[in-house]
Design a protein that fits this description.
single chain; alpha/beta; 7-stranded mixed β-sheet; 6-stranded parallel β-sheet; globular; binds nicotinamide-adenine-dinucleotide; binds zinc ion
């Protein structure tokens, strides 16, 4: 049986490469595994040899010590792999298939899955609803920043690439299908982006840049991206977005300079609860993005809130925020009849269409988010560099599938 190297959380600011067990078709006890999930049989799963597995801002919330993630949790929810073993209950996925794995683990059998709400599956997380690989409070499914990983409910969850050679050629784009591309797209769809829309996207991290790409695909007439990080704003400009530097103040005035009006049709929050306040040197202020997008969205508009918000944040500045309670001007949202969509992106709704857009050269998502492949062993440097604000989407290459 092969060994299995993986990336684990080792306490605030630290990740390390560790040796973990090669997966079997059973969920064993380990860091972060829900007691009710220990011993759970997974005959519907497959074992994947990892082709690409990306570092995400969602991982960073845990690595910064801003969640209740336990030390030694194996990270990684953005997984593309080659099937090396299939469980006894897998009918259609075969050994040798190259597949994209939605970061949401879902059963395909519950009421929510039947309505394609795969981010809130009722059967995979004994503590509640919704699950993901390698994530705190999500049932304890082992993360995929590893050489091998178990992927449950394979026939239901996995997206098989039609042609292996073609897929390996476009792997840097296709690896974005496990999370950020569908997530950015979902942010825009739920914000109502359509032909001619004016769109504001808060955050120029990889998810914000994926949302900006998606707004362009959906036909927006203006895509304006706001951040405090000049390198990331330059990345947004590199593919035709307009940008706003939030160290100069809130977005309204700068949107007015671009559009002639301080409001937009659609807004996306691609920041989440670690949001900084607006203006030079502003401190963290977790409700900043939510309040500002309510202000700058036209009455009747919709907000796509894909940035992550938590119910427990040990590092929050005040007691309320430690429990996830933020100071929202909901009255503004009410007065303007704004619609809100929050939560995990249901990846399965979008991944096939976005795969086809990639395979037929309609979009170059990896260029837009500046995807860069690094060996698994370099994950600690990748995490540190990403945390320092580098405008890079790091893609780990644990088994050498990604050519230099
Ligand atoms: N809903 C989902 O399914 C889903 C999926 C993936 C990621 N996420 C979440 O999306 C968010 C973004 O992910 P990422 O990988 O791009 O993270 P990231 O940390 O790389 O990017 C966040 C960016 O927001 C910027 N920022 C901070 N305060 C801001 C403000 N007030 N206005 C505008 N920009 C501000 C930061 O400078 C940073 O560039 C995270 O919260 C992540 O957890 C959600
Ligand atoms: Zn992610
Ligand atoms: Zn389900």
């Amino acid at each position: 049986m092969p060994g299995n190297k993986a990336v684990a959380y080792k306490g605030p600011g630290k990740v390390a490469i560790v040796d973990i067990d090669y997966p079997t078709f059973e969920l064993k006890d380990g860091p972060g595994v829900d007691p009710a999930n220990i011993g759970r049989k997974v005959p519907h799963g497959v074992i994947l040899k990892t082709v690409a597995t990306n570092i995400c801002g969602s991982d960073q919330h845990m690595v910064r010590g801003r969640t209740t993630a336990p030390v030694d949790l194996v990270l990684g929810h953005e997984i593309t792999g080659e099937v090396v073993e299939v469980g006894s209950d897998v009918e259609f996925i075969k050994v040798g298939d190259l597949v994209s794995v939605p970061f949401n683990i879902s059963c395909g059998r519950c009421r929510n899955c039947k309505e394609r709400k795969t981010g809130i599956c009722l059967n995979v997380n004994p503590a509640g609803y919704g699950s993901a690989f390698g994530y705190v409070d999500m049932g304890g499914w082992v993360g995929g920043q590893a050489e091998y990983v178990l992927a449950p409910y394979a026939d239901w969850n996995l997206l098989k690439f039609p042609d292996k050679d073609q897929a390996l050629e476009k792997i840097m784009d296709l690896t974005m299908l496990s999370d950020i591309f569908p997530t950015g797209f979902h942010g825009c769809v739920s914000a109502g982006v359509t032909v001619g829309s004016t769109v504001y996207i808060a955050g120029a991290g990889p998810v914000g840049l994926a949302a900006a790409t998606s707004a362009q695909l959906l036909g927006a007439s203006a895509v304006i991206v706001g951040d405090m990080n000049e390198k990331r704003l330059a990345q947004a400009r590199s593919f035709g977005c307009e940008t706003i530097d939030l160290t100069k103040g809130g977005p309204g005035e700068q949107i007015e300079q671009i559009l002639g009006s301080p409001t937009v049709d659609c807004a996306v929050d691609a920041v989440g609860f670690e949001a900084k306040g607006h203006g030079a040197g502003a401190a963290e202020a977790p409700a900043t993005v939510l309040n500002s997008i309510m202000d700058i969205t036209n009455a009747g508009g919709s907000l796509g809130i894909i940035g992550l918000y938590v119910t427990g944040d040990p590092g929050a500045a005040d007691e309320a925020a430690k429990k996830g309670s933020l100071s929202l001007s909901l009255g503004t949202g009410w007065a303007k009849s704004l619609a809100f969509t929050t939560g995990q992106c249901p990846v399965m709704k979008y991944h096939r269409g976005l795969m086809n857009a990639i395979l037929r050269d309609k979009v170059h998502i990896s260029d837009n988010v500046n995807g860069q492949a690094i060996p698994l062993e370099e994950a600690p440097n990748g995490y540190a560099d990403f945390d320092s604000g580098a405008s890079v989407k790091y893609v780990l290459n644990p088994n050498g599938y990604i050519a230099a």
